[in-house]
Inverse folding.
């Protein structure tokens, strides 16, 4: 793919998303289906109650359609491409079921954690099977250490990586525009890595995801007209983990996805501290809520977190190249 063609997948995915999204929002508003706000969340989030959700379904559809078009056109319909779309669709389906139960069945909890985990693990096992079938090794490359052959333990790593980052992005998706902005940065970084590795199949998915997220951001920025929902966040996290593995640069996700990691750690620290001491470390977790409770506006949190994402992505690329 030439540089002049790089923007075509972005543009088409963007166009599909912005074309469908108003119809999607209109349907939810007409049926009065909206997001329920958690009681334990910040009180000022109550004004967001009733805002349409499940917007991630629209940009996932845009990503799949656009990726298929360009993969067929460019002869990039590979096993890696297929298994990456498989993770997108499966994790997106899990999120869709969770959102559907919350919104249409009026059960605020959706799928329980065990049901989600089983689905995520099944996806990870299929991903690892195809990964090995392609002849890829069980080797994990770590800067400063070298290549480590983990043997069958690499399969366990794959499961932890996919499940962990899928849930990490899901936890991060708590403010208007936060994950849509971070996602564009993360997938843009992996697009550069895929370009340098001449992995056209992965590059196409990264570019179409950027376009879909850009289109979604127009409706998701504060004040959000629609939320992403689990259908979008679970799929995005799973895709990022899968891409880092397919590019054999797993370690990069700890830097590129540092915000997702910190959000997850803040929840783990909060829960552990409260169980052991009865005291909370943060005013509220995930950590973006802590900053909200400290008087930061959503826009300020978004911008600071996006800057962190940009800086860490730049550091990652400097380490690599």
């Amino acid at each position: 793919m030439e540089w002049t063609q790089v923007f075509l997948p972005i543009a088409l995915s963007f166009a599909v998303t912005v074309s469908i999204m108003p119809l999607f929002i209109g349907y939810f508003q007409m049926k009065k289906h909206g997001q329920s706000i958690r009681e334990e969340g910040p009180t000022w989030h109550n004004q967001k109650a009733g805002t349409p959700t499940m917007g991630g379904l629209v940009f996932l559809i845009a990503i799949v359609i656009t990726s298929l078009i360009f993969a067929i056109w460019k002869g990039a319909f590979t096993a890696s491409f297929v298994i990456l779309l498989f993770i997108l669709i499966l994790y997106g389906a899990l999120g869709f079921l969770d959102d559907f139960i919350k919104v249409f069945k009026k059960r605020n909890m959706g799928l329980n954690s065990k049901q989600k985990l089983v689905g995520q693990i099944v996806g990870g096992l299929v991903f690892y099977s195809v990964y090995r079938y392609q002849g890829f090794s069980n080797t994990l490359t770590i800067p400063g250490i070298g290549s480590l052959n983990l043997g069958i333990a690499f399969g366990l790593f794959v499961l932890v990586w996919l499940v962990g980052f899928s849930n990490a992005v899901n936890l991060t998706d708590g403010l208007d525009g936060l994950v849509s902005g971070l996602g564009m940065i993360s997938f843009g970084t992996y697009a550069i890595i895929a370009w340098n590795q001449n992995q056209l199949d992965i590059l196409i998915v990264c570019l179409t995801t950027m376009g879909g997220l850009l289109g979604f951001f127009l409706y998701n920025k504060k004040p959000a007209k629609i939320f992403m929902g689990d259908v979008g966040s679970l799929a995005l996290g799973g895709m990022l983990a899968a891409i880092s593995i397919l590019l054999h640069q797993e370690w990069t996700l700890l830097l590129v996805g540092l915000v997702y990691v910190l959000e997850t750690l803040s929840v783990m620290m909060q829960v552990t501290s409260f169980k052991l001491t009865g005291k909370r470390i943060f005013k509220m977790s995930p950590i973006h809520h802590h900053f909200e409770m400290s008087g930061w506006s959503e826009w300020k949190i978004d911008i600071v977190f996006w800057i962190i994402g940009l800086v860490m992505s730049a550091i990652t690329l400097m380490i690599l190249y």
User: Anything to note?
Assistant: DSSP finds twelve helices and two strands in the chain. The mean pLDDT is 92. Strands lie at 139-142, 146-149.
